[in-house]
Amino acid sequence: MPKTTNPVTQKSGLSVNIILTLIVVLIAVVVIGGVLWINRGGGGTQQQPGAAVPAEVLRKPDSSVLTEGGEGKVVVSEFLDYQCPACWQYYNGITKQVEKDYAGRITFVARNFPLDMHPLARPAAQAAEAAGMQGKFNEMYHALYDNYQGWAASPNGEVSSDQQKAAAAFDEFARQIGLDLDRFHQDMKSPQVNAKIDRDVKDGEAAGVSGTPTLFINGQQFSPSGNAKTYQEVADQFRAQIDRELAK
């Protein structure tokens, strides 16, 4: 019987051993790359699927709160980045209306998670928390998102890096909501505000957050199912999960 040959190795001149070695190396690269991708969020403790994140991780006594439902009420916690386009879209399509419709029935906690890829995210977080030092967190939070395109996006629709333009916008929002502008500037740079932002980020990492927005309902991370194709469908799923918690 004539000796048979593998057409692949015959054509390429590669031995079977070399091909097997290359396959093993390729698998190793894929596995290692996947591990690195999973841990890109900064080394926070990853929560097991379905495990509830402890309440003390998701909310600190001084965490900024958009709506207060009272003791024993459903708690929604959002780790957000004010310059994140997805956060802005979630705000417009989901969370802004949820905040209104569930006012008094849920506690909505806003936690900072500015991403390095968004150069104006931390200054915006500083503006929001500095406004909170004067009792106007909610007003600044809404001003930042309602006017997102004016300070967070460049004319071509990309993420802006114009610090001067953003600072001017933050000052205008501060004037509109009645802040003491000098104190606002001081608080933005204060150790207290910056420590609060840093603590939010640390808590987010401990909760397994690696991107924004990441939302939790009574400690359970909200993850829309794969059949949700529009923000309305995501909003319907988000509300359904809140309603289930309210019904308990």
UniProtKB/TrEMBL annotation:
Keywords: Disulfide bond, Membrane, Oxidoreductase, Redox-active center, Signal, Transmembrane, Transmembrane helix. Residues 47-240 form the Thioredoxin domain. PANTHER family: DISULFIDE BOND FORMATION PROTEIN D, GLUTATHIONE S-TRANSFERASE KAPPA. Belongs to the thioredoxin family. DsbA subfamily. This is Thioredoxin domain-containing protein. InterPro entries: Thioredoxin-like_fold, Thioredoxin-like_sf, Thioredoxin_domain. The lineage of its organism: Bacteria, Bacillati, Actinomycetota, Actinomycetes, Pseudonocardiales. It comes from Saccharopolyspora taberi. The chain crosses the membrane at residues 16-38.
